[in-house]
Specification:
Layout (H helix, E strand, L loop, with lengths): L8 E9 L6 E8 L3 E5 L9 E8 L4 E15 L4 E8 L4 H12 L9 E6 L3 H19 L5 E6 L2 H10 L4 E5 L7 H12 L5 E6 L5 H8 L3 E5 L3 H12 L1
Parallel strand pairs: 7-8, 7-9, 9-10, 10-11
Antiparallel strand pairs: 1-2, 1-4, 2-3, 3-6, 4-5, 5-6
Helix pairs in contact: 2-6, 3-4, 4-5
């Protein structure tokens, strides 16, 4: 892929791929107009054709994108295993829809964004909240504020979601009282099935990416979370 023609944007989005009778699910990283990095342990080789289904939270629907594998390897310091995928942009209508998706990463939200942050470590939650607001101001300017409400455990998060309105939730998977996996499941079934959710966890906690997928998170970011990647992922999910 020509990186100069299609600059990559650090963001994460849920994606399914494969045959309709045997779909696999995972997360896509580093999205551009020309392709993305697909985190996967599937046995894919350069040149293999893949049918991607990019899942957009809320009413965004799903974009079906034909593509092919360009390279196999790892991404970032966490050395996430996966493949570099190039989109087939021959269909002009589909190419335009991909462009609109990527445009989200270059635009500020239309309105202030309210985020629920579920993090059991109070000090980390404060640092995270301050950093997230600061990064949002740097990217969007002061005219598009981002507010963060914190909850120290899953039960407190459920209560907050039932009494207040949020645009998105960022959930640590290892929380007391009610862990993140169970919390996401209850949000999906009891509170708001369409709420955009980003899950986080330390890489050494195991294969938390698969835990996040099973739970129904729209994106997963390993700790330490890169704030720009988080803000870009919020842009994609809120569109």
């Amino acid at each position: 892929m020509d990186k100069r023609a299609h600059p990559r944007r650090s963001a994460v989005l849920a994606v399914t791929y494969g045959d309709p009778d045997a779909l696999r699910a995972d997360y896509a990283h580093n999205i551009s107009r020309g392709g993305l990095f697909l985190a996967t342990d599937a046995e894919l080789r350069p040149g293999d054709a893949v049918e991607l289904r990019l899942a957009l939270a809320g009413a965004g629907g799903t974009i079906h994108v034909p593509a092919h594998v360009r390279w196999v390897g790892t991404l970032g310091e966490a050395e996430v295993q996966g493949v570099g995928v190039e989109f087939d942009r021959a269909d002009q209508a589909l190419a335009a829809r991909i462009d609109r998706l990527v445009d989200r990463l270059e635009q500020a939200p239309d309105a202030p964004v309210r985020v629920l942050l579920v993090e059991p470590n109070g000090h980390a939650a404060q640092l995270f909240s301050d950093g997230l607001r600061s990064e949002a101001r740097r990217l969007f300017g002061d005219g598009h504020p981002l507010s963060v409400v914190t909850a120290g455990d899953g039960q407190a998060a459920l209560e907050a979601l039932r009494t207040d309105l949020f645009d998105l939730a960022v959930i640590e998977l290892r929380t007391p009282e009610l862990d993140g996996e169970a919390l996401i499941d209850r949000i999906r079934h009891e509170v708001d099935p369409g709420l955009p959710i980003i899950a986080t966890a330390r890489a050494e906690d195991g294969d938390e990416r698969q835990v996040a997928l099973r739970a129904g998170a729209d994106a997963f970011l390993p700790k330490p979370v890169q704030l720009r990647t988080l803000v870009n992922s919020i842009r994609l999910l809120l569109g």
